[in-house]
Each structure stands twice: as C-alpha cells, then as structure tokens.
Amino acid sequence: MAHDTHIHVRTQSEFEYAKKKRADEMKGHLATFAIMIFLTLIAFTMVAAGFSTYLIVPIILLMAGIQVILQLYYFMHLSGKGHGMVAFFLFCGIFVAFITVLALVTIVWW
Amino acid sequence: MSSIAQKKGFGATIWDFMTTVDHKKIAILYLISGGFFFLVGGIEAMLIRIQLAKAGNDFLSAGLYNEIITMHGTTMIFLASMPLLLAFMNAIMPLQIGARDVAFPFLNSLGFWLFFFGGIFLNLSWFMGGAPDAGWTNYASLALASEGHGIDFYTLGLTISGFGTLIAGINFLVTIINMRAPGMTYMRMPLFTWTTFVASALILLAFPPLTVGLFFMIFDRLFNSSFFVVEMGGNTIIWEHLFWIFGHPEVYILILPAFGIFSEIFAIFSRKRLFGYTALVFATILIGFYGFMVWAHHMFTVGLGPTANAVFALATMIIAVPTGIKIFNWLLTIWGGSISFTVPMIYAVAFIPSFVAGGVTGVMQAIAPLDYQLHDSYFIVAHFHYVIVGGVVLGILAGTHLYWPKMFGTMLSEKLGKWTFWFFFIGFHLTFFIQHFLGLMGMPRRVYTFGADQGWDLFNAISSAGAVFMAIGVIILLVNVVMTTIKNERVGNDPWGDGRTLEWAIPSPPPFYNFAQTPLVRGLDTFWIEKMDGNKKGMIFAEPLGDIHMPNNSIIPFVISLGMFIASFGALYFLDGDKPWALAVLIIGLLITFGSMLVRSLKDDLGFYITKEELLEDAKGGKTDGH
C-alpha cells in the first residue's frame, strides 16, 4: 500500500557510487553544451560567410537534428532507466512524420 | 458507495451507465452504440442493394443514393467497426493483463461519450437538411462544392468522435505499458492484448493527420480559407494525402484487433498453444509499421508519376508477407489440435479463406498498371468488403460469441449462432464474390443505377439476394441476444472450458474491481498453466488481500461531450449569416465544455477504498456487482 512508505538508508559505497555517477553526468552535460554552442557557431558562420543556400540548408538541418538528439539524451534524460517505451514512441512519431513530409515534398510539391 | 449489490430501478441503471468509469460498463456502452450504428449502416446497405437490384431502378434518387453510400461507409468504419472493437478491447484487455481498470478511467468514459455524440451529430444530418454526399473519403473538390450542411456534419461529427478514439487509443497504450500484473512481460501478453497495443499505437499516429485534414476542410467550408481551392492557390490533392495517411493505417486499426480475437479463438478451441507466438507478435508490429508507408496506393490514378507509384506498389506488396506469416501460424495452430467447432471457431475457420481472398485481390491492386483498370470499379468494392466483412466483421461476430459470457454472464445460443453464421457467411460471399466480375465487366462504383443493355442485371440481382441473407443472419443474432438475456442462465468463470488467459480465471461478469488480489503471471497462457498445475483458484497471487483504491463515478465526461455537441451546431449554422442565434449556441456549448473541464480540474476527486472486509464478504457471498 502507498501509505507504508519505505525509508532506504544508503551505505557509504552506494553514496560514493551515486556521487561519481552525478559527476560523470555533469561532465556529459558540459561537453554536450560545448558541442551545441559549437554547432550553433558553425551555423551562424556559414550564413555570415555567404555560402550557397544549397549547401547551407542541408547542413543546418543536419546540425539541428544532432542538437535535438543531444538535447533529448543529455538534458532530458531519454537514456535513463524506464524511458525505453517513451523513446520508442518518440522515434515512431518522428519516423511517420518524416515519411509523410518526405512524400508530400517529393510527390506533391517537387 | 459499497460493494454490496442492490436491485436498481431503470432510471438508476441509466444514471449508472451515464456516470460509469468502469471499463467493463464502458465496453457495454461501446457494444450497444456500436451495434446500433451497425444496424443503421446495415439498413443503408440494404437500401443500396435494393436500388441496384435491377437496371434503371428509381427506388432512390441519384442525390439520395450519394448520401446513403457516404453514410454507409462512414457509419460502418467510424461508428460501427471501431467502437465494436473498442468494446472488446475495453472489456477484455485489462482482464488479460491482470489490471483492475484502464490507466485513466475518467478519460475512458470521456472517449466513449465524445465518440457517441460525434456519431449522433453525424447521423442527425438525415433530419436536418441532408446527409453528407461526397463519399466516405470526402474528396475535397467534390466536398467543397457540396450544397447544404451535409459535409459540415461530416467534418464536425468526425472531429468530435475522432477525439474520442484518440483518447481511447492513448489510454490503452498507457494501460498496457504500465499496468501489467507482476510477471506479465511483453512477450507473455496474450495476442489480443498485443494487437490492441499495436492498433492503439496506430490510432495515436494516424488520427492526427485526419484531424488536420478535417480542420482544413472545416476552415475551407465555414471560414472561406482555401487550403484545397485550386483557383486560390490551394491544392486539392493534399486532402487525399491527409485522408489516406490516416485512412490506410485505419484499416489496420480495424483488422489487427480482429486478428487478435481470432488468435485467441484458434488457441482456445484447438486446445493448443498458439503456434509461432513470437512470429505472430513480430508480424503484428511489422504490419503496423508498413501501414504508414503505403497510403498512396489508394491514389495510383491521381498522377503521382511512375517513381512514386512504383515505390508505393512495392511497399504494398511487402505487407502481404507478415499477413501471410499470420495465416500460416493460425493454420499450424489448428493442425494437430483437439478442435471443437463452436460458433467462434466456425467464424475463425471461415475467416481464413475469406480474408485471404480479400488479401489476394489487394495484391492485384498493388500492381499500379492493373490498378488503372480496376480503380473505381466494383472490383474495388468487392475487395474492401472481403477484407472488412470477411476479416473485421467476422472477427466482431466471433468476438461477440466468444466474449459474451465474460461481458454479460450468459452464453449466446450455439444453435442460433450457427444459423446466424451460415446465413451471414453464405450471404456475404453471394453478395460480394460476384462483384469482382461486375468490376471486371466495367461497372463503376458510386453510380446510382445502370442500364438494361449493359449486361449487369443478373449479377446485381444475385448480389442483392445475398444481402438479404446477411440481413437474416443479423436478425437471428438479435433474436439470439434477446432470448439469451431473457433466459438469463448464469455461467461460471470459464464457460468455454478451455480458456487460456487471465480473463477466464475470474467470474463472468467479473466483479467491478476485477481482481481481489493482483495475479502473478508465470508464463504465456497464464490460466492454462495454473489449470495444468492443478491450481483450483486459477491463478497465484502477487499480493496479500488488502484495501483496493477505486475511482469515483462522474457525469463530467458526459457533460464535456454534450458541450462539444451543442457547440458543433453553433459552428455549423454560424456562417449561414441569417441565423443570429448560432453564435450564442456556439459560445454556450464551449462554455459548458470548458466549464466542466474547469470543475474537473479544481475539484479534488480522490476516489474511494474497498475494504478488505468487503472483499472477503464478496468472496463468500459472490455478490460482485458493485456500488
């Protein structure tokens, strides 16, 4: 029953494990943050440098895709335990939307 | 509220059903309203066949015929097949996974009432200036040119009932992911639960495109936007894409639960474990995926170009592979089994050749060049009736017989059931088999009559005669239901004697909390395993007997849906210009909806507890009917 709340006392080794895990996670956050800033810089630089649109658009879309995935996995904890189904449905939705947009773009508007 | 049963008056029963959040009662509501719309759609079908019984018939006018074919298709797909399948999903799926209810009982009720009011709204068009008349696919150029309010009834009604279906789908997904009993891993779930899961995922992904399409259509018709108006820079083909991006997964939403019901039936009445359980699960998921990659095969003749047609033709043919896997697994389940030909089993055995026939003509149409010949002919009509009637409707009829004892505690008569079967089955093939040849002879679909010199008289007459047989079959089923209800001979937990899954381990109908103690699942076919181990209780328990937390009944889902229903009339008449009251109706309707949502949000409803003592009392006295 919900009202029999169980209190768990952590041992020293459990505490240290959790601490190390958090430190690792923090490193991941910082690294991801740096990568994302870097990707954004590339995007802005490319536009400022005045490359051909046919080069800029696909590269920016690609980098946007990478950023979304980094965001989901490192900042929204999609890799965490119990998120398997969430990730599965997320990617199913993305897949269906992608197929739909791709088809409409290629056979209706191309 | 206590769990001690009381005799209730008629009004109290109605009130109970209007406020219920119990998945088993909502299932009964779905069954009754889906059954009602099935009869309405059936009457429309009979009118079509009367009109086409002879050449140059003037039983129906051309305009009325258009309205009837549109409403026949729309009613049968959205308001009959889907709710009837949702009825079985609601009634059986939570029992199969050992849950006490679905994840969101309140939303379950809301989903039903939205569907119900959407369906009523759509059908009220008959009495309020004419039904929609642009075909169930409602192609934009035709629909936008349609006079009167028929199409507006279609768009608004389907939007409301679509919300309901989407809510139901999400609810089932969350239920199956989160509420399985201990030990019920994904690969131990009964196949009906698996198909419910995949069908719900398809609902989740397929209904949004339909909603977008319907919104565009509503805006084009009511607010003069021009998404589909070619003269204004719109594109009429977009509707076809949006409709079929939804429409093709929709047919899998219908057929997968039917496959699930048949999988249960084959295992139960062959007294064998399903052959190739893993392959069946895999094939179900694969069909779900492929379902989203084939929609343009409905549009081969639109002129998408040879590349697009080739891609979609190939994708369509691939779908035959997982379907074939399923067919062979079912056959091998029967093979070597100890078969008993009960009514559900007869339906299941008859389903295989009927559905395969529909599948084969489907692969024929997947060949794009051939489809140019077959498109919009009676061959198409024959094909989709073979898969929908030969697959879905046979599945629903089989499920009705199989699960009737679990839902109502009485057995439908086997003898009358067999009469229903033979009339329906012979009638079905008589009606639709010959339509393949009418199609090959050039008879177009959706045309209200034909000439005496075209040589289609005899075949159409035969087809109409078959429809009469089907009608007789359905009438016998109704007689069966009435007689069974009057006789009221109660049955035990496992009336078929060979139940394999958890729903057969508990009373028929189950107590309103389903399981006094959550079961512990030790493998596929849980109940069968326990029976084979000589466990008299039918299951082992994962928890000691304790208090059970249950949700309170609520009228709010009904009121929310009623508000949407009222607001739809306001939206419908708003832009006529000469009806100043329409805006007021629209606002009042929305106020009711959002007001009741506000009440729901602000008022805490913490549910109630069934105490251990009451559960013990129930176990002794067998008083299990709740409230």
Describe the structure.
The complex is a heterodimer of chains A (110) and B (627). Chain A has three helices and no strands. Chain A has helices at residues 12-49, 53-75, 84-109. The longest helix of chain A has 38 residues, at 12-49. The termini of chain A are far apart. By secondary structure, chain B is an all-alpha fold. Chain B has 19 helices and four strands. Chain B has helices at residues 10-19, 23-51, 62-96, 105-124, 140-145, 150-178, 191-222, 236-270, 277-290, 306-334, 343-366, 368-374, 378-408, 414-440, 457-487, 526-532, 556-574, 581-602, 612-621; strands spanning 519-520, 540-541, 548-550, 608-610. In chain B, the strands form two sheets. Chain B has a two-stranded antiparallel ribbon. In chain B, helix 2 runs antiparallel to helix 15. Chain B is globular, with a radius of gyration of 25 Å. The termini of chain B are close together. Classes of the chains: A mainly alpha (110), B mainly alpha (627). The A-B interface holds A 1, 85, 89, 92-93, 95-96, 99-100, 103-104, 106-108 and B 173, 177, 201, 204-205, 209, 235, 237-238, 241, 245, 292-293, 296, 304-305, 308, 546-547.
Quick overview:
Chain A has 110 residues and is mainly alpha-helical.
